[in-house]
């Protein structure tokens, strides 16, 4: 198929009428977000790792909706998968009911039907809506009203699986019963016709398990009942994972590019490759990516006695991480030919959308740069954006102060690989691990400076399994004593007001501005600043002999940052005129700082 034709086919694909989506946030912040935004056509994502919280939330929403609830207990057969299926089916049922109600409502101020169209971005649907409201021709207005009601569609109810969260509970190797595989089975058996978002890289066991479910394969019309989205940090990762799946007859419907550092939750920094150049590579290689994977997928489908695809199914390229203004949104969509952008952190200040208790929403409103850190809090050993004054972090420091560091491990989802002090894996945030690790430091031959840093990193770990559910537990009354952890991105310091859903959507589309930090740097500038901070911390570990990094790493970071700055220098003229001078000045000051990255590494 000719590349130009491929691009035309892809452009015809449209799910949500919006040009943004709400990514997954923690385990609890977006666990029921579809109930709050799907009826307005807005896509959102549920994290399905915590089946304990999912079961609790199913009871909450069953009770609220008057639906019968029968508990699925921990010790029941395939309980994890069944809990996830039951919860997703409930959310699907309730959203469908909402949509039926919305479509029947009058076009009057205050109705959800009116809110649906008022929140839309500029485009044909919004134009038809305005024409209907004018009502100069009654017959025409009646036709338009019927047309608009037909175009009311729900936002996607997608789910997230972090691929590395794949514990074998109790050490069991029973096929299909690891945490990730059970989660996937729970989604695959649900009534949802949506997507699973895989994040954190390739998991062969998990990706192979997709082939057990027909819904991930095209039907006789070439349609996909359930779709695959990959969250990636660069083009190479996208191609490698897309190729792995294509060779099994599986099609990736979206590549969700996230900034390596300018994001929320876990961060996956590249070696200095920046968002702009990464998206440029996707833009230029998109037809090639689609065509090559189409060929591989068809070969695998034929080998499996399945019908080949006459044309490649739709592929979306989207981006997220640190977006804060409508100008940045427009630049991403238009300059890089993206299909959507992800807005996460700002929605933590929207009570209608996310589960954040009042106390922590106030802390987010008042947060400054010093309150949000790229921390060692995650037991994964991966950098993690953390609100420093959250109840979870306050409790962690209090335990240290009274000589009882570490946390109980009530859920165990992150008890994955560490067998340093036990036959079975234990979580590095657990009291069991922390106490033994601190006692063992004397035997590790560390000098005082090394020991201080290692001890700091050991004590930084937080029980994310439990505490990222805190906001949902407090908001619903599941646990009035929950100690909440908040995985906000650094972009939160630019927003300090609680907003309604309508106000945040209006901000995204440039109808109002909710920014409260007049000195906020452009998202591309901020990413460079974050990389400079990150590489400085990496070098500290390197200089102390505690890093697995090689000297060439620092040189690679420097060269990639230089190349990114050169790219952005050519991009300046595409920015709004009022932003160009400040952007260019900050870019040049960062160019000088990047030069110092190279001299940090020893000769």
Topology:
Elements: H1 3-11, E1 20-21, H2 34-37, E2 44-47, H3 51-65, H4 79-104, H5 112-118, H6 124-134, H7 138-150, E3 157-162, H8 179-188, E4 195-199, H9 204-209, E5 227-232, H10 235-246, E6 252-258, H11 275-303, E7 316-320, H12 326-335, E8 340-342, H13 358-365, E9 372-375, E10 384-387, H14 391-401, H15 431-440, H16 448-459, H17 464-467, H18 470-476, H19 501-508, H20 523-543, H21 551-571, H22 577-600
Helix pairs in contact: 1-11, 3-4, 4-8, 6-7, 10-11, 20-21, 20-22, 21-22
Question: Quick one: how many beta strands?
Answer: 10
Helical coverage, percent range: 40-55%
Kindly report the spatial arrangement of strands forming the biggest sheet: 1-8-7-6-5-4-3-2
Estimate what percentage of residues fall within beta strands.
5-15%
- Helix and strand content put the structural class at alpha/beta
Quote the distance from N terminus to C terminus: 51 Å
Instruction: List low-confidence stretches.
Output: 1-14
Mean pLDDT: 95
Characterize the overall form: globular
Radius of gyration: 24 Å
Number of helices: 22
Major sheet: size, sense and barrel closure?
Answer: 8 strands, parallel
Description:
With 603 residues, the protein is of the alpha/beta class. Among the domains are: 1-16 and 194-321, no CATH class; 22-155 and 157-174, no CATH class; 521-603, no CATH class. Helices cover 46% and strands 8% of the residues. It is built from 22 helices and ten strands. It has helices spanning 3-11, 34-37, 51-65, 79-104, 112-118, 124-134, 138-150, 179-188, 204-209, 235-246, 275-303, 326-335, 358-365, 391-401, 431-440, 448-459, 464-467, 470-476, 501-508, 523-543, 551-571, 577-600; strands at 20-21, 44-47, 157-162, 195-199, 227-232, 252-258, 316-320, 340-342, 372-375, 384-387. The strands form two sheets. It has an eight-stranded parallel sheet, with helices on one face. Strands 9-10 form a two-stranded antiparallel sheet. Helix 20 packs antiparallel against helix 21 and helix 21 packs antiparallel against helix 22. The radius of gyration is 24 Å and the shape is globular.
């Amino acid at each position: 198929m000719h590349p130009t034709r491929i691009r035309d086919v892809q452009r015809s694909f449209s799910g949500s009428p919006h040009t943004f989506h709400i990514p997954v946030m923690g385990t609890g912040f977006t666990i029921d977000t579809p109930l709050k935004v799907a009826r307005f056509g807005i896509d959102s994502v549920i994290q399905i790792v915590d089946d304990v919280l999912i079961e609790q939330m199913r009871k909450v929403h069953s009770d609220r909706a008057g639906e019968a609830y029968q508990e699925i207990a921990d010790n029941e057969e395939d309980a994890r998968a069944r809990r996830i299926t039951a919860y997703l089916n409930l959310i699907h049922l309730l959203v469908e009911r909402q949509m039926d109600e919305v479509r029947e409502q009058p076009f009057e101020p205050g109705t959800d039907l009116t809110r649906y169209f008022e929140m839309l971005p500029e485009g044909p649907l919004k134009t038809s809506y305005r024409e209907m409201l004018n009502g100069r021709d009654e017959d025409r207005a009646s036709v338009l009203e019927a047309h608009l009601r037909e175009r009311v569609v729900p936002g996607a109810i997608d789910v997230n699986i972090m691929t590395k969260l794949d514990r074998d509970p109790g050490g069991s190797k029973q096929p299909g019963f690891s945490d990730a595989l059970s989660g996937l089975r729970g989604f695959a058996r649900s009534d949802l016709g949506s997507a699973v978002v895989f994040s954190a890289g390739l998991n062969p066991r998990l990706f192979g398990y997709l082939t057990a479910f027909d819904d991930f394969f095209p039907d006789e019309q070439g349609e996909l009942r359930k779709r695959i989205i990959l969250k990636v940090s660069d083009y190479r990762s996208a191609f490698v994972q897309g190729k792995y799946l294509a060779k099994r007859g599986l099609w990736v419907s979206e590549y969700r590019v996230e900034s390596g550092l300018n994001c929320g939750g876990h961060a996956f920094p590249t070696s200095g490759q920046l968002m702009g150049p990464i998206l440029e590579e996707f833009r230029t290689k998109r037809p090639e990516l689609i065509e090559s994977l189409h060929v591989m997928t068809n070969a695998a489908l034929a080998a499996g006695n399945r019908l080949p695809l006459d044309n490649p199914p739709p592929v979306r390229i989207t981006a997220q991480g640190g977006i804060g203004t409508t100008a940045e949104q427009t630049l991403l969509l238009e300059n890089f030919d993206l299909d959507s952008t992800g807005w996460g952190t700002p929605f933590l200040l929207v009570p209608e959308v996310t589960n954040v208790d009042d106390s922590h929403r106030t802390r987010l409103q008042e947060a400054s740069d010093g309150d949000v850190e790229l921390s060692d809090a995650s037991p994964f050993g991966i950098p993690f954006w953390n609100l420093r004054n959250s109840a979870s972090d306050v409790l962690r420091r209090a335990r240290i102060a009274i000589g009882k560091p570490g946390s109980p491990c009530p859920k165990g989802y992150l008890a994955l690989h560490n067998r340093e002090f036990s036959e079975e894996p234990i979580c590095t945030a657990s009291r069991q691990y922390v106490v033994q690790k601190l006692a063992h430091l004397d035997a590790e031959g560390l000098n005082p400076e090394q020991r201080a840093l290692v001890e700091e990193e050991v004590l930084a770990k937080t029980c994310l399994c439990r505490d990222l559910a805190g906001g949902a537990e407090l908001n619903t009354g599941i646990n009035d004593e929950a100690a909440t952890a908040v995985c906000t991105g650094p972009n939160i310091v630019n927003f300090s007001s609680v907003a309604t859903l309508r106000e945040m959507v209006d901000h995204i589309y440039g109808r109002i501005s909710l920014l409260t930090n007049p000195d906020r740097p452009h998202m591309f500038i901020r990413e460079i600043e974050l990389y400079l901070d990150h590489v400085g911390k990496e070098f500290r570990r390197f200089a102390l002999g505690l890093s697995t990094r090689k000297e060439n790493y620092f040189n690679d970071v420097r060269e990639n940052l230089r190349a990114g700055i050169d790219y952005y220098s050519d991009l300046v003229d595409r920015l709004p005129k009022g932003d160009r001078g400040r952007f260019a000045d900050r870019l040049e000051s960062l160019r000088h700082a990047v030069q110092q990255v190279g001299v940090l590494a020893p000769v």
